[in-house]
Design goal:
This protein is an all-alpha fold. It has helices at 2-36, 54-60, 63-94, 101-109, 116-127, 134-141, 149-152, 154-179, 183-191, 196-223, 228-233, 245-255, 259-289, and strands at 38-39, 49-50. Strands 1-2 form a two-stranded antiparallel sheet. The radius of gyration is 24 Å and the shape is globular.
């Protein structure tokens, strides 16, 4: 009986937070859905009228919509590749005993605590600036022409900046998993004559599979909504070279002041993100159950 009372009391105490969280999520969503069916333009001095699915048709037939999907997928896949491969390599390095190991771990993890806006500004002005940036000075010192990253390779530059921010997260998760690897298996394989590469591919990689799937899931959810790095560095350009779905919604809502079409784009982005998350969860669920 005491257990039943404890459960009821626990649910009663948690209920206000759950209700508040539910309202915090559902009210903006319902409002956005409502606006998406209106002809609602902030600069047009007339009452909002019912538009039906016109905003969705307009957004889906916009010539930049398909390009924004491709750019979003390119950023997600590019960052995942860099962070997973780089995270495994850094985790293997930091798992080895060496002098100053604690300092190196702090330095590797530090970028994850830097705000996206700040890191984007640092990369834009201190590293990638074609006149005063560090890469430009290195190129001049080698007798080469400085490369304007944000103009000549904007999408790759965004991928590099975002990957730099997420690499510490992947490294931390993979290092934690790597430290739980049974050392006796490694020693037994080494005594049986297995090479370093064989031990890595047949023992280490299978052990890291679950950690990799968790990294992919969490990063994918956040990478689908990358915005700050693009806003600070390229503003979606040159042209629409770095315009993602989230940035396209921003342009429609706060640059063109078309709240109706922007809300429709936001709902479409939410639907696409949930589809991706659904398939990612199914894939990861199979790996975690294996």
């Amino acid at each position: 009986m005491a257990t039943q009372h404890s459960r009821i009391a626990a649910r009663f105490m948690v209920a206000p937070s759950v209700v508040l969280l539910f309202l915090w999520m559902i009210v903006p969503l319902v409002t956005t859905i409502y606006f998406s069916f209106l002809d609602y333009k902030l600069l047009v001095p007339k009452p909002s009228t019912w538009a039906g699915f016109d905003n969705y048709y307009y957004f889906l037939t916009d010539r930049t919509f398909l390009a924004s999907i491709l750019h979003t997928l390119a950023i997600v896949l590019g960052v995942l590749f860099i962070t997973v491969v780089g995270g495994i390599l850094l985790a293997l390095l930091m798992n080895m005993p060496f002098w100053g190991q604690g300092i190196v771990r702090v330095l590797v993890i530090a970028p994850f605590f830097v705000m996206p806006t700040v890191s984007a500004l640092v990369w834009k002005n201190m590293f990638m600036n074609p006149v005063n940036g560090m890469f430009a000075h290195i190129a001049k010192g080698l007798g080469l022409q400085p490369f304007d990253f944000l103009s000549q390779a904007p999408l790759l530059s965004i991928i590099g900046i975002v990957a730099w921010q997420w690499l510490p997260f992947a490294t931390l998760i993979l290092l934690t998993s790597l430290q739980s690897l049974d050392g006796e298996q490694q020693e037994a394989a080494e005594m049986d004559g297995a090479s370093v590469l064989s031990r890595f591919f047949y023992l280490t990689v299978p052990h890291l599979t679950r950690a990799v799937t968790v990294v992919i899931l969490i990063q994918t959810i956040f990478l689908l909504a990358v915005f700050a790095e693009i806003f600070v560095t390229t503003s979606g350009g040159p042209g629409t070279a770095t315009t993602t779905i989230s940035y396209l919604v921003y342009i429609q809502s706060l640059v063109k002041y078309d709240v109706g079409a922007g809300s429709a784009g936001g709902i479409i982005a939410v639907i696409l993100a949930n589809i991706v998350a659904f398939f990612a969860m199914r894939m990861i669920g199979k790996n975690l159950d294996a």
